[in-house]
């Protein structure tokens, strides 16, 4: 793999992974604090609503982006372009989910979340803008990573030959699937290896056990 292609692939993978992590982190934080007044002598009721409660698509998009980060290494060709489109779509959902509490009135959604109907007391909301903004940032990263993959992904080679070898039982080889390659990519990344890197022993023309050595 040429250095520019390697850098582009790394940028797309890291962008998708970081976006997924940011989405999951933001989704678990309190986006809105809701206070409902109650008749005296009862004190006001206060409840913090997380991003997961107000925007369930945020953690779902985060998990999708983490899976996409591995799939970008495991698949190639048209499959990689599809992954890029999914990553960009997930980024759009993240951006929309993060902007909604910043630009619209969240009182109705908050009332539904705390089950405060019209007969309840006055409801006030306080938006904690940092976490929705973080979701928007995650969305922008995901869109950029997805678009980069759609435009340039077809030129990126896939996993190294050692991860592409056919496997099977009883001496019957079977075709490697995208799922198999994704699992191998996870394991390689967990070991700190680059699954796209070719090793000397993986190159064609080399036999195991030193059979290529000169014979007398």
From TrEMBL:
<feature type="transmembrane region" description="Helical">
    <location>
        <begin position="54"/>
        <end position="75"/>
    </location>
</feature>
<feature type="transmembrane region" description="Helical">
    <location>
        <begin position="129"/>
        <end position="151"/>
    </location>
</feature>
<keyword id="KW-1133">Transmembrane helix</keyword>
<feature type="region of interest" description="Disordered">
    <location>
        <begin position="159"/>
        <end position="216"/>
    </location>
</feature>
<keyword id="KW-0472">Membrane</keyword>
<feature type="compositionally biased region" description="Basic and acidic residues">
    <location>
        <begin position="173"/>
        <end position="209"/>
    </location>
</feature>
<keyword id="KW-0812">Transmembrane</keyword>
<dbReference type="InterPro" id="IPR019051">
    <property type="entry name" value="Trp_biosyn_TM_oprn/chp"/>
</dbReference>
<feature type="transmembrane region" description="Helical">
    <location>
        <begin position="82"/>
        <end position="99"/>
    </location>
</feature>
<dbReference type="InterPro" id="IPR011746">
    <property type="entry name" value="Trp_synth-assoc_CHP"/>
</dbReference>
<protein>
    <submittedName>
        <fullName>Trp region conserved hypothetical membrane protein</fullName>
    </submittedName>
</protein>
<dbReference type="Pfam" id="PF09534">
    <property type="entry name" value="Trp_oprn_chp"/>
</dbReference>
């Amino acid at each position: 793999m040429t250095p520019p292609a390697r850098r582009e692939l790394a940028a797309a993978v890291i962008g998708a992974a970081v976006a997924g992590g940011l989405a999951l982190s933001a989704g678990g934080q309190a986006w809105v604090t809701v206070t409902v007044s109650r008749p005296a002598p009862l004190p006001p009721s206060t409840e913090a609503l997380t991003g997961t409660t107000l925007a369930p698509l945020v953690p779902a998009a985060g998990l999708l982006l983490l899976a996409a980060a591995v799939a970008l290494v495991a698949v190639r060709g048209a499959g990689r372009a599809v992954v890029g489109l999914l990553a960009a779509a997930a980024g759009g959902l993240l951006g929309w989910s993060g902007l909604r509490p910043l630009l619209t009135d969240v009182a109705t959604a908050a009332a539904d979340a705390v089950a405060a109907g019209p007969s309840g007391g006055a409801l006030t909301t306080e938006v904690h803008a940092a976490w929705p903004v973080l979701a928007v940032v995650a969305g922008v990263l995901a869109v950029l990573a997805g678009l980069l993959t759609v435009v340039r992904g077809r030129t990126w080679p896939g996993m190294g030959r050692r991860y592409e070898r056919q496997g099977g039982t009883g001496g019957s080889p079977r075709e490697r699937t995208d799922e198999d390659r994704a699992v191998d990519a996870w394991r390689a990344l967990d070991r700190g290896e680059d699954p796209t890197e070719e090793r000397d022993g993986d190159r064609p023309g080399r036999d195991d056990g030193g059979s290529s050595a000169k014979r007398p």
